[in-house]
Amino acid sequence: MSTQGEASEVETYVYSLGAAAKRAARQLARAPAATRNAALLAMADAIEASADTLRNENAKDLEAGRANGLADALLDRLELTPERIRGMADGVREVAALADPVGEIADMRQQPSGLTVGKMRVPLGVIGIIYESRPNVTIDAAVLCLKAGNATILRGGSEAIHSNLAIAEVIKRGLAAAGLTDACVQVINTRDRTAVSALLKMDEFVDVVIPRGGKGLIQRVSEDARVPVLYHLDGICHVYVDDHADLQMAEDVAFNSKTYRYGICGSMETLLVHVQVAANFLPKIGLRFSEHGVEMRACARAQPLLKNSLAATEADWQTEHLGPVVSIRVVDDMDDAIDHIESHGSHHTDAIITNDLQRSQRFLREVDSASVMVNAATCFADGNQYGLGAEIGISTGKLHARGPVGVVGLTTQKFIVHGDGAIRG
Amino acid sequence: MSTQGEASEVETYVYSLGAAAKRAARQLARAPAATRNAALLAMADAIEASADTLRNENAKDLEAGRANGLADALLDRLELTPERIRGMADGVREVAALADPVGEIADMRQQPSGLTVGKMRVPLGVIGIIYESRPNVTIDAAVLCLKAGNATILRGGSEAIHSNLAIAEVIKRGLAAAGLTDACVQVINTRDRTAVSALLKMDEFVDVVIPRGGKGLIQRVSEDARVPVLYHLDGICHVYVDDHADLQMAEDVAFNSKTYRYGICGSMETLLVHVQVAANFLPKIGLRFSEHGVEMRACARAQPLLKNSLAATEADWQTEHLGPVVSIRVVDDMDDAIDHIESHGSHHTDAIITNDLQRSQRFLREVDSASVMVNAATCFADGNQYGLGAEIGISTGKLHARGPVGVVGLTTQKFIVHGDGAIRG
Question: Tens digits of per-residue pLDDT, A36-92?
Fold first, then answer.
């Protein structure tokens, strides 16, 4: 466990989950797609059959949440309605229907030595998921990991613990129906926060941890983690309206990027406008934002062109508002726009609106973000829209998986080598 | 810098290297392949033109090393002979001649929304390399990273500091000849060990750190790192001789796997032999090992079949000998062999010798190692033999790059999205 002194009871417990997950991962790596899919379909059925139990357990969490003064928005995220329970079951069946990523062999080529060398796609092994209070993450994350052949250790927010443990029971029934061990999906059943640190340090068992949550969680993870981490950080996304843009298209795309859904990480936070088109473009989109109740925080050059706008502060350029607020800035040219994106953005998703081919190519190449778009709304940044199927999140890191992470991102490739008695001389 | 209190002088210095590297990485990401290759070719010329200077500076390190009682093996690794200097220049020219990985666009597909979504290969950004006293790593690592469009911060062993700084001067001349900034390749010029911790914590500037060195270095890295790390750990590699093997082939491959070069991480450390063929196979290979001066440490079933062998201890099964020592064990069947590999190996490279197709397929699928081989010697595990060109190392981690890491492993892919004014409804 690499910790000093004696392990606490919680550490010993988490360690036992890790050891069991590692053994389960070997079983899963051998299990054919048919077995994994059978488990998923059985889970979907079990979810529907257990709707009443799930709602009863969820009611305990809701009651405790209300007693503890949880905010309405959090209570809403916590609640399992009949529709959400049906949605969970449907989501599981969609994942079961995805193409199987495991075992794919690619790039087999004969080398000068006579060896044939290529790659085989295989599960990562054991994945830890740390997330906040939405109980549906328990099932969504577990099934994506299972589809990709991985064992999972889940640690949800303590406010949802009854819901999560009830979902874990349903998952177990699905696993059992396909002859897979319980330990393929384990939910940490303690509210003790040292369980998270223990999970993050267990590098002999855990191949990667995926944290889903706010800045507090992310900071703790980055301080404690010895295991590799796939981060899903802020989306401070930009739309840059070039002077060679179709301005009607620019207006529609920028408006949609902000207003499609305020709460998603692909939502536009900052609109950048080329100085040559600002006078023509800004009053029109300003009116639309204003009528839609979107608060505008503008730079000194943009503010006079935007009725009802406020002056932007330096902090606005690096804030993920996740609400009806947009920062707006006039830039001198595309280089100025790219400089702004590189110095204030979060490397998540950024778009250019232009009809100039060379500029579109430079923007695609030079903007160092997980998704770079031309003439499309930033809110398209998700795994389903990219053809990946369901996603576990949108990675803002550069290693392994960048941008939306679907089942393939939950696998790895090993080299496979065929010889005929080859030796090196 | 995420450290508490005031930054020390060394931390401030390393931080300034990080900021400069980040700016250089943006310049490099825009530089076409022709520019990066021109820098590489100019470096190769500069190495040859500076051979005398390199040897003079290297002599200072050798003298200090002798005065400090450095072991002969380490002094040998430290020395820059005329042949090694020529080898460095040739190596740089080979990297320049590799196919360029940057800018490759793949998997562009139209999605139901009308968007076209695909991936573009781009540099990782800023790479930190921490290594021990071989000065040729300075040039090898820098040129591979530069080929892939990355800026590099190098921290070599302090015993080689004069050699490394002299090589850094040569690298700068190459960069200048192609119009690239100095900061594309920077060598940390202090012996102060806090420089390493500072580098490992600078997650706003450093995209990945690659440590090359012994267990002490690796442990410090894993404790201090906030930045992602590509680990290159032990190679405890196995050859399993199945009862369906061609025993002459098995003997040749196993012998070659051990004796081709003792010091490489792909060298076989443990030979596993199916009980049904042990009596026939072991005496013959035992004789070859014995004649070749290879010490055998054998399990209780193998020892009577191997003249001059010692009894293996539990520690032998998990030791990377890197020398003329081999551990030998008789196993009941392939499952027993796989269990041994999974519980004692290091997930580096493992081979089966068999003519049974189903067993070869199960072994390929179930052994969770970076390279899994059928009827080939483990010592083939390297980037050149796999057709990747020069390698920066052999990753034993599962994320991002697994097994030999060439220039492609030093890049990442971002999503690129083309629309025609697409909005989400």
Answer: 999 999 999 999 999 999 999 999 999 999 999 999 888 998 999 999 999 999 999
pLDDT score for A5: 57
Structural domains in chain A plus CATH codes: 9-231+404-416 (3.40.605.10), 237-385 (3.40.309.10)
State whether residue B256 sits within 8 Å of chain A by CB. yes
Among B30, B370, B380, select the one facing A115 at the smallest CB separation: B380
Kindly report, residue by residue over A255-302, the tens digit of the pLDDT.
999 999 998 999 999 999 999 999 999 999 999 999 999 999 999 999
User: What number is the ipTM of this complex?
Assistant: 0.93
A133 pLDDT higher than 80: no
Strand extents, DSSP E, A196-253 = 208-212, 237-241
Q: Which of residues 176-205 of A touch B (CB under 8 A)?
A: 203
In terms of Cα–Cα distance, which of B118, B181, B175, B184 is closest to B152?
B184
- Asked whether the beta carbons of residue B417 and residue A371 sit closer than 8 angstroms, the reply is yes
Contact B115 A385 (CB under 8 A): yes
Cβ within 8 Å, pair B117-A207: no
What residues of chain B, 319 to 358, have a C-beta less than 8 Å from chain A? 342, 351
Using the predicted structure, report yes or no on whether residue A132 has a pLDDT greater than 90: no
Q: What does the pLDDT look like over B160-171, one tens digit per residue?
A: 999 999 999 999
Give CA–CA dist B123/B152, Å, rounded: 12
pTM for the whole structure: 0.93
Find the closest chain A residue to B29 by CA distance. Answer: A366
Nearest to B337 by CA among B245, B236, B241: B241
Taking the Cβ of residue A373 and every Cβ of chain B, the question of whether any pair is shorter than 8 Å is answered with yes
Q: Is residue A324 helix, strand or coil?
A: coil
Which tokens is A8 given?
């606490």
Residue A366 CB neighbours (<10 A): 17
Interface check for B113 against chain A (CB to CB < 8 A): the answer is yes
pLDDT for the residue A1: 42
Distance of alpha carbon A209 from alpha carbon A138, whole angstroms: 14
